[in-house]
Amino acid sequence: MKRYPQTARFILGLETLFHRFRSENWSQYVTICGAVIGWTRGTGLMSANNIVADAVESQGALTFIQSEVALNIFALMTPDISSFCEDTPLYADLRGGMQYIDDLKQCIAAARNRISEEVAIRKAIAAERDIQRSVLRGVETPKEKLQPAKRARFELDLPALSDYETTTQGTQYPEGMVDLSRVVVVVGFSELGPWGNSRTRWEMESNGDFTMQGYIEMAWIMSLIEHKNGDNKGKPYVGWVDVTTKEPIRDDEIEERYGAQIKSHAGIHFIETENSGGYDPHKKEYMHEVAVEQDLPPFEACKDTAQAFQLRDRADQVTSWSMCHSRKAKMAIVGGSDDFQEEMSYEFARMKATCSTSAELGLGKLPSEMSRSCSTSRSGFVESAGCGVQIIMTAEKALEMGLPIYGIVVMTQMVSDKIGRSVPAPGQGILTAAREDIRTADSPLLDSKNRRHRFDREMRHWHQQAVSTRSLSDTQRSARVRMLQRMWANDLREQEPGISPIRSALATWDPTVDDIQVASLHGTSTKANDVNETDVVKQQVEHLGRSPAAPLLVVCQKSSTGHPKGAAGAWQLNGCVQMLRTGIVPGNRNADNIEQKLEQRNHLIFPGRPLQTQGINATMLTSFEFGRKGGIVIMVHSKYLFAAISKDTFDTYKSVADQRRRGANQAYIRAMLESRVVRVKEKSSWAETEEKRVFLDPSYRHGVASVDRKSPYTVSIAPDSDTRHPDKQSPTSIDELESTIKLMSKAAMQSANNATIGIDVEDLSSINLDNQVFLERNFTVAERAYCDRSADRRASYAGKWAAKEAVFKCLQVPSRGAGASMIEIEILNCDDGHPEVKTRGKATEAMTARSVSRFEISVAHTETTAVAIATATKC
């Protein structure tokens, strides 16, 4: 409607052009194509006439909706129609025949009258029915429709696992190649800061507001509400109540009632005297500096105070490193904390490291806008306080316990570049994390397929040597496997020190530097740090050859949390974990104008709002502290860890992890409802009678003695394995394998006086399950179906292959070559699980020629070997 007058004038002008086309001299320069449209329903101008459109169409004309008119007009712009306009003006009639209706006005008026009469009749009938109903039943009070109140659903942000194929989608890493006992994963994290805990902080950082669950959790943390289950003011009640008034509150009312109060005391805000030990910046006490010219009296402290001082220096760095390197610790709780202190805040302000609140207020900035990392107007960081913590563990132990695996910590490094007199001066020593000899950038060690080939080759070589010499025990064999895993996966730089630490850490899991999609910066909002830090990151990725087409998204968490000092890195790591889990990259909402110097930072992108990606493979965290010190952490997605284990191992882990997740959610909800987060134990969970056994037996745990415990590197015989004696235990070492073969051979010789024996030992890794041609040429349909249903396909196929070879050796016929098919010898399983032999073709002819009546088969497995003994009984 607003554009109708302009459109009408344009149409009138177009008609004038049609009339003047032949008489004016501009006709040879202009082509004209116009149209007249008909009745269009749904427009603002014609909306009042929509009810009579049917009457118009009943007269033989057409009416149109807006999209139909637009399509007809666009059809005039096709090449076929446009070519006509080159010769003469084109005037299209799109009225739908409306011009042929006689007395259109009378037709519309009659239709309106008819509709008005019908509406009046229907209203009268409805009113009559209402009167009759009120006489018979009385006047009904209109019922108010009750809408069910929204309820919050509390749940921990634990990773939800799908099936193996979906979880590992996009990864091609071969299983069994990484020493998981040397892989560090994050299995838990939390924090306490300006926005509450890690969950509520992530809601503000990624969405800009709390969810209903977030508001309830913040109100509960701030002791504004509590959960009541029982009598409340003389009435039974279950739900949230106000702590002060004890009034019941619905879940959906908490935001409206406490939202403003929560946000005024959360996030970056003015210093609250009651929560800062009575410190009031406006009433600060200043001290005079006095030169001391003589020694002060000796400092004395009580025993408890002295011991508290000693707690700070429990171990030096070398001792701590040795403790970590010993691999005796399977789990560690790490993190940092810092509280707001008057003295520290004042000294930072004297160094001009923090922003001036009065100056920022003069610029019209709110407290929440004063931390502006990477922006032109930044003037220093904003004080904050809190703590952050992570639980890290070896991947091997995490998989065994079914703990949630949030990400893999593939690399950490801390450096200090040089000595300087300036405390806040930035350094670039962390560039050493990208140090690399240019000649090693294309090293074959960086190719996972090449490493896998060499790993498998060495595994086969030493295994064949061990079988022939019978020189390795289970412990030695496991140590050998771990040594090869470290050589070809975990510790690539031991073979090629020139490879960059970053590139080497990523290559262990197959990603490249291009897969680092997010850089979580220290981003303190100071003039020097933001320029220096972005320059360091830019130099690192460029030196490692990052593709120009791979943008690196920058996250500056301190724009929403402020700078907590000790907890800064822990909060950043928590944010990286949440980005890996959700694929959301929070934006820097306070970056009103990105610093001009940062425009030269190729690859780096500074988003101003959250971005939902299709998934993040790896993140990089950098931290730059005073004293020219810096640190870096590289994390990759947990899907790469799951791709490095077998499907059976993953399914077992998933079942345990799902059960643990359900229990964790129940414990979390119970803690909130009962307000009992910490449950102090009064006695140990372990029986005192077992203490001595635990102290004396290093493998005795949870009431299971070492003699009852299987080696963690031993694969037991599968329940569907081909074995004639199911009550026998499968051999688990080379020595036991040798004795088993001797016993099986002796039993076979004693079972038949006139018999021949065939023995075959096969390496499980020698069976190529990916070669479908090999399987079809050597195994029947029934054999393949049986093996594919088994818990360990490779072991089952290897057992049947060893049995076929043993039967072939029993027949004592010349070999037809290594490529000859073995499908004529079929190993099937009876109902009781015992294997039986069926032959056909040349195998049957050989049985007849040597008067063999039947075969007896025994099959057993070790961790890496299948052994079969066949006895051929003659007639």
Automatic annotation (TrEMBL):
GO terms for cellular component: cytosol. CDD domains: elong_cond_enzymes. It holds the Pfam family Ketoacyl-synt_C. Keywords: Magnesium, Metal-binding, Multifunctional enzyme, NADP, Oxidoreductase, Phosphopantetheine, Phosphoprotein, Transferase. GO terms for molecular function: 3-oxoacyl-[acyl-carrier-protein] reductase (NADPH) activity; 3-oxoacyl-[acyl-carrier-protein] synthase activity; fatty-acyl-CoA synthase activity; holo-[acyl-carrier-protein] synthase activity; magnesium ion binding. It catalyses: a (3R)-hydroxyacyl-[ACP] + NADP(+) = a 3-oxoacyl-[ACP] + NADPH + H(+); acetyl-CoA + n malonyl-CoA + 2n NADPH + 4n H(+) = a long-chain-acyl-CoA + n CoA + n CO2 + 2n NADP(+); a fatty acyl-[ACP] + malonyl-[ACP] + H(+) = a 3-oxoacyl-[ACP] + holo-[ACP] + CO2. GO terms for biological process: fatty acid biosynthetic process. Residues 181-637 form the Ketosynthase family 3 (KS3) domain. InterPro entries: 4-PPantetheinyl_Trfase_dom, 4-PPantetheinyl_Trfase_dom_sf, Beta-ketoacyl_synthase, FAS_alpha_su_C, Ketoacyl_synth_C, PKS_Beta-ketoAc_synthase_dom, Ppantetheine-prot_Trfase_dom, Thiolase-like. PROSITE patterns: KS3_2. Residues 714-733 are annotated as: Disordered. Belongs to the thiolase-like superfamily. Fungal fatty acid synthetase subunit alpha family. PANTHER family: 3-OXOACYL-[ACYL-CARRIER-PROTEIN] SYNTHASE, MITOCHONDRIAL, POLYKETIDE SYNTHASE-RELATED. This is Thiolase-like protein.
